[in-house]
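User: Sequence in, structure out. Go.
Assistant: Echoing your sequence, followed by the structure tokens.
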Amino acid sequence: MKKLKVILIGAGNRGKGYTKTMLDMPDKYEVVAVAEPNESFREFIRERHAILPEMCFESWEPLLQLGKIADLAMITTMDRDHYAPTMAAIAQKYDILLEKPVSTVPEECRRIALAARENGVRIVVCHVLRFTRLFQCLKQLVDSGRVGRIISVNHEECVGNVHQSHSFVRGNWGNSTRSSCMLLQKSCHDTDILRWLIGKPCIEVQSFGDLTYFKEENAPAGAPEYCIDGCPEGDHCPYNAVKLYLEDKGSDWRVTATRVENPSDELVAQALHTNQFGKCIFHCDNDVVDHQTVNMLFEGNVTATFTMSAFTKGGRATHIMGTKGEIHADENNKLVEFFDLETRKTEFIDPNAEGELSGGHNGGDEGIIETLYDYLCGTYTGSAISTIEESCEGHLIVFAAEESRRTDSVVDFREYVKSLEPAGPV
């Protein structure tokens, strides 16, 4: 069995998670180098994977200047920092596992796809939902023909109110000028899933949404700038930073708040006095939406609606309506419900009948790493892996949706794609 050597660029939460799965597959993967500006994160990866000190770098440039020293480059930097290392890794002929989004700029997405094609490089974007038992079950039902021809799909991304507060108000993705629009960061997963399930190109896109709740005007009377200073509503507020970060000792979010592995209570308290993770949820500099709906028309008059909302407990739900059958699926439920329009019978299908995958995103994080090995070794025969062109098409649906939301218009998706450079197919 061939062991694939891996270099890691960006050792934040996603990089740590994927490489931990690789560590659990020692006969398949070996992480041999890391580039990460945060010393605590970089040292964590070095120790976990026994990487030589001389193969640890503060930035990606000197690592990629070594030439191609491994089989795979994993790029899990922040959103706006994907393009440059990806293009440099393509030039070195690395195959790439790229955290989504591909880029925060539509033209850069297309340049990456074109460069990969010209250089014979395989890029797998981390559309981890494709590798969960649930969505693979839905794909198998659709491809089996039991649903018939898909007519409509309703899909929901229930972000979860606390996840919204942590990641998209206080956190790295709360401000679009620092990262990207929320629909791109959180839900290019979902436009990809819709395109994958429907199996037809998108034709038109329309979107509505706004930042409605998490803003200054909704702050309780007397709410201080920082929760730790004592808020009159603190005992009842689901977003109280003291409860979420200081009192919850086991929360992985403590690492995000402090930027230190295994932080002490003292470090957490210091962070809650000084950085945005300690701020009142209504006093942050966030500007991304807290709810958004996207209407899509696909070839063959297939209609799809997608709703992303913060005001939920979390999880995704999908309703597929076809000429022969109807599917209801929810990440928070164990069973998929299939209704046969001819027999009028309902069947409940357990997508985890063969055992649940472990790890993040309901097993998708583990699933993509397992599948990636087979794909790179040329033994994969499934349909979950997306080409970089397919990934970019899902991204461009997001960019078109943002264009629609900002301009209050219906966007002709095909004309929108034609307007982008470089020219040629997505």
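User: And one key feature?
Assistant: The chain has three domains: 4-125, 129-214+287-359+387-418, 216-278.
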